[in-house]
Design brief:
Shape of chain A: rod-shaped
Number of strands of chain A: 17
Radius of gyration of chain B: 19 Å
Helix content of chain B: 10-25%
Helix content of chain A: 55-70%
Strand content of chain B: 25-35%
Strand content of chain A: 5-15%
Oligomer: heterodimer
Largest sheet of chain B: 5 strands, mixed
Number of helices of chain A: 27
Largest interface: A-B, 22 and 22 residues
Number of strands of chain B: 10
């Protein structure tokens, strides 16, 4: 649009220029005339002709008349010459009439010249002739006028038209100029209006900006690159307690920056000016400190940006007083900490309480087991059995509570050890077989699809979960079937940990779960009412605990059930597949065929003694036993033994002393090789043993292998002692390998007997000590008893329990009741765990 | 008495001044000898015959001369005109204001106001291209303006005042 208008305006302008020039030229022309009065000249020619003719007519002889003739002739002649010569009349040449007439007249006049210039007489004589001839010229003269007339009329018209045209041109030029002017005016008007509107808009924007700044609750401070305050809005006034007039023009570093930050502030301004690193500018919100007018230092949240104000840089800072927020945050943090502390206190309370409940319970149960071992009447036996059952249920509840507490406190630890799922499931099925049978149920398990036997997971927890589910299944099924299925999910675990998901399903054909109960079944304290009155009740925590454990193992648990048809409880757990373990290399059998040896074993722990005796007997040796140091020395004096195994810590006379006595004495066994048996063999002790006269030492638990090696060494005369392992590092509470080996070496029946014995002993110990000790207790004897049981524990591979007992023993030896007390407290829990594993 | 004498002389001199001036102006005009080309009558101071000043060519040539080189609308090409400026003539005759009635041989009359005259234009030309003009050739006298030198000379009024075959001038007062 603009292009079109501009183009038009240019055209108009050029038009006006053109026409103006034309007008000026025309006006210039008009200033001077280029022609004399044509009409006058032509009519005057006619008059002068007639006058001439008249004089010819009336001319007489008088010289005066002749002079007149001559005069009139000259006048007419000059007139004709004018017509001929004047530029003006040249145009009429085109008019053939004019030219012809003029030529004829002039030729007549020229012919007459000699006569006119001649003598008077000649002239006067020729007057009539001349007159006659002149009269003939009348028509030519007329023609002259008339032809001139038309032409000059036209010319006059043309001139008028030209003038008119000139005027028109002038008009056009003027009009175009006016148009231009109008256009310019309009343009100016529009521009003016636009400018005004612009100005207004700017003003409004400015006003808005001012309003924003004024109403902003955040302080807005504008500072130039030197640090001089340019702007300071109302909120800033309020925050800092200054008037903006007091602040503007002064350095921000002097007024608002707290003293301890002034140097840093100056540096950072310097850096900014030199184009250096900007640590705060444009880096979003930064927490800093500022100083109020009254000197108070308070925390602020600051956001700074730069902008260009012309060619200088200015800094725009948005400041928020966050002292309230900080205070609130602090309060929140404190509240949170209090809450957490409260939570922890709760958890601790639960733990402690459950321990407190557990230990007397353990005592109860331990003693009950002892009691059942003693002679009882059938009635008594029945009572004891019932008490045992109740006690175990109670214990189970306490365990549940403890588990929950642990889980909620986030302390539920999940172990990762290699386990054979098939074995686990088999054990479970076997264990629950009796329970199932008592309700007429059949229990079975199988793999669905490919097997994945060896995995890394927390076996105990898996067992616990499945036990709970199976227990429930049996509980709610009568004369039905309980199936356990295990299936490997072909898809990998969604958490991309590379683990596989194994789904366990416990399917029963029992009474099922109603729709309205199924959603809340995993909630705590949820029981199916009909369970009341059954022999084994439940507190309803089992599934809740199972759920928690499953969650802790990153798994899922769920149930599908149709009331009356049975239920399917499923658990999906991610587990890492473990390679099948290489079969434990049987350590090379000591090939040495030894003759039958006469061996003396001095050991105060009955079980250990039994174990050693069985082992040695199996090797084909003759074994004599003694249960303390004194009797050991006595027996050694009776005959010469081939080998003596001497336990170190024994009552009455310990192993070291006994050895010294034997060596110092003169008995037949004085030179017999003595091998020390000890649970703890510290390097510093070794030297003591050697000094006492011992030849070698074996650690407990006594393994067949070690025993054989020891025998061989002794027989072959080599006296290098083998370093026994101090502690076996296993994560498991029970070294099942150890147990298996033991079982194999002594035979299943004897093993079971020994195990039972050990379990009862441990129960007894735990019940007595688990309740903590009072100050009057004999710490030393406690230590000794711990030691004794530790030895047995080692035999059965109860490594954790043993470790506990060792620690207790050490503490007792040190005579520190404060140290001992917590150890004894934990003893009970440890034993329970161990016990459950041992007695599976 | 010397003061009085000085005053007297001053007075006489003062009285004489107009006379001296007019004396110069009133230098009498000699009589013409040749054929009379121009007769000036009317309100003139100097005459050389009864109530008229007559000029022949010689007499005219005693007056200041001027030359134009110019073309005219009645002639062909540029011509050199020589003659007496009209204002010079009038000055010789002691005419300072009024109107002139210029007449031609054929009784053509035109009025020329004296205040329209410039010092050197128009002139009464008596020679064209160095030769006197014959009666047949718009002579002997022709009032000519220097048309080419300025467009202001080329007006209808001036053309009408460019009287040829001039023989009489009458000076008329307002």
């Amino acid at each position: 649009m603009g292009w079109f208008v501009s183009l038009t305006l240019i055209l108009v302008m050029s038009l006006s220029v053109l026409y103006s020039r034309q007008v000026l030229t025309d006006l210039d022309k008009l200033r001077s005339a280029d022609s004399d009065n044509v009409q006058w000249t032509l009519t005057q020619a006619e008059v002068e002709y007639l006058t001439f003719v008249h004089t010819l007519d009336t001319g007489g002889e008088g010289s005066a008349d002749l002079a007149l003739v001559r005069e009139k002739f000259d006048i007419f002649y000059s007139r004709l010459m004018t017509l001929r010569n004047a530029q003006l009349f040249q145009e009429l040449v085109a008019h053939s009439g004019f030219d012809t007439a003029l030529t004829e007249l002039l030729s007549f006049m020229t012919d007459a010249i000699p006569l006119i210039d001649g003598s008077d007489d000649a002239l006067s004589a020729s007057l009539p002739v001349l007159h006659r001839q002149a009269v003939l010229g009348r028509d030519q003269v007329r023609t002259l006028s008339i032809s001139g007339l038309t032409h000059f009329a036209q010319r006059s018209d043309a001139q008028r038209e030209e003038i008119a045209r000139t005027l028109l041109q002038l008009a056009i030029a003027t009009a175009s100029l006016l148009v231009l002017l109008a256009a310019l005016s309009i343009h100016l008007l529009i521009t003016n209006r636009q400018t005004r509107r612009h100005g207004l808009a700017l003003q409004q924007a400015n006003q808005r900006m001012l309003t924003i700044l004024a109403t902003s609750l955040d302080g807005v401070i504008v500072v130039n690159e030197k640090g001089i305050v340019l702007e300071f809005n109302r909120a800033a006034e309020f925050i800092f307690g200054y008037n903006s007039t007091d602040v503007k023009g002064r350095m921000v570093g002097d007024l608002l920056v707290p003293d301890h930050l002034v140097a840093a502030h100056r540096d950072s301004m310097e850096r900014m000016r030199n184009g250096g690193e900007r640590r705060v500018i444009g880096k979003g919100r930064v927490k800093l400190e500022a100083k109020r007018a009254n000197g108070d230092v308070f925390p602020i949240e600051l956001a700074v940006q730069t902008a260009m104000d012309g060619d200088t840089e200015i800094l725009i800072a948005f400041i928020r007083d966050i002292s309230q927020r900080m205070a609130d945050e602090k309060e929140l943090v404190q509240a949170r900490d209090r809450a957490l502390a409260g939570e922890k206190a709760k958890a601790d309370f639960l733990t402690v309480m459950s321990h407190e409940i557990r230990t007397p319970l353990n005592g109860l149960l331990g003693n009950l087991s002892l009691l059942s071992g003693s002679g009882l009447s059938p009635e008594q036996r029945q009572c004891v059995r019932n008490m045992d059952v109740s006690g175990r249920i109670l214990l189970k509840h306490v365990d549940s509570v403890l588990d929950i507490a642990k889980f909620e406190a986030g302390k539920l630890q999940i172990a990762h050890e290699r386990v054979n799922l098939s074995e686990l499931l088999q054990n479970l099925a076997d264990g629950q077989n009796g329970n199932a049978a008592s309700r007429g149920n059949v229990i079975e398990w199988c793999w669905v699809g490919p097997e994945q036997e060896w995995v890394k997971t927390d076996a105990q927890r898996v067992y616990q979960i499945l036990l709970n589910l199976v227990g429930n299944a049996i509980k709610f099924t009568e004369f039905g079937r309980v199936s356990i299925e295990a299936e490997v999910d072909c898809l990998p675990s969604p958490d991309k940990s590379g683990r596989k998901i194994i789904e366990f399903r416990v399917i029963d054909t029992g009474i099922g779960i109603s729709e309205d109960q199924i959603d809340s079944i995993f909630d705590d304290f949820q029981t199916n009412d009909s369970s009341f009155g059954r022999a084994i009740g439940g507190a309803g925590l089992g599934l809740g605990i199972a759920r928690r454990i499953v969650e802790a193992m990153d798994g899922e648990i769920g149930v599908e059930s149709v009331e009356g048809d049975g239920s399917t409880f499923w658990v999906r757990l991610p587990m890492t597949a473990a390679p099948k373990p290489k079969p434990r290399e049987r350590r090379p059998e000591a090939k040495a065929v030894l003759p039958q040896l006469d061996i003396l074993v001095v050991e105060d722990n009955e079980i250990n003694l039994q174990v050693a005796r069985s082992m040695l007997r199996r090797e084909g040796h003759k074994v004599t036993t003694a249960t303390d140091g004194r009797s050991g020395v006595d027996v050694a004096e009776t005959k010469r033994f081939d080998l003596i195994f001497m336990d170190i810590s024994m009552p009455v006379l310990d192993g070291l002393q006994a050895t010294e006595l034997i060596r110092a004495g003169t008995g037949p066994s004085q030179k017999t090789p003595i091998i020390a048996l000890s649970a703890n063999v510290l390097p510093q002790d070794k030297q003591r043993f050697l000094d006492a006269g011992m030849d070698a030492f074996l650690g407990k638990p006594l393994t067949l292998d070690a025993l054989r090696r020891a025998l061989y060494t002794v027989r072959s005369g080599r006296s290098e002692p083998e370093d026994p392992p101090i502690e076996t590092e296993t994560n498991a509470e029970v070294d099942t390998d150890q147990m298996t080996e033991l079982k194999t070496s002594m035979g299943g029946e004897i093993f079971d007997q020994l195990l039972q014995r050990f379990v009862s002993e441990a129960d007894g110990l735990v019940s007595e000590l688990g309740g903590g000790t009072d100050e009057t207790a004999d710490i030393q004897s406690i230590g000794q008893r711990c030691h004794k049981i530790a030895g047995s524990a080692a035999v059965f591979g109860a490594t954790e329990f043993r470790a506990h007992l060792n620690s207790a023993e050490i503490a007792a030896k040190r005579g520190d009741p404060a140290e001992l007390a917590p150890l004894l407290r934990d003893l009970g829990t440890c034993w329970q765990r161990t016990r459950s594993i041992l007695t599976r | 008495m010397p003061v009085l004498r000085g005053a007297m002389i001053a007075l006489i001199l003062a009285l004489l001044i107009p006379f001296t001036q007019s004396a110069r102006a009133e230098q009498p005009l000699p009589a013409p000898h040749g054929p009379i080309l121009l007769t000036v009558t009317g309100a003139i101071e100097i005459t050389n015959s009864e109530k008229a000043a007559r000029f022949d060519l010689n007499l005219l040539q005693t007056l200041p001369q001027v030359e134009y080189r110019t073309s005219t609308i009645w002639t062909d090409g540029e011509k050199v005109f020589a003659g007496v400026p009209l204002s010079a003539l009038l000055k010789r005759l002691g005419v300072s204001s009024g109107r002139l009635k210029a007449r031609a041989i054929n009784d053509y009359t035109v009025e020329i106001p004296i205040d329209s005259l410039q010092d050197n234009a128009p002139m009464i030309a008596f020679s064209m291209d160095g030769a006197p003009m014959s009666r047949r050739d718009k002579g002997p006298l022709w009032i000519v303006y220097p048309y080419d030198s300025d467009p202001s000379f080329r007006t209808e009024v001036n053309f009408s005042r460019s009287i040829w075959q001039l023989d009489r001038i009458e000076v008329v007062l307002e």
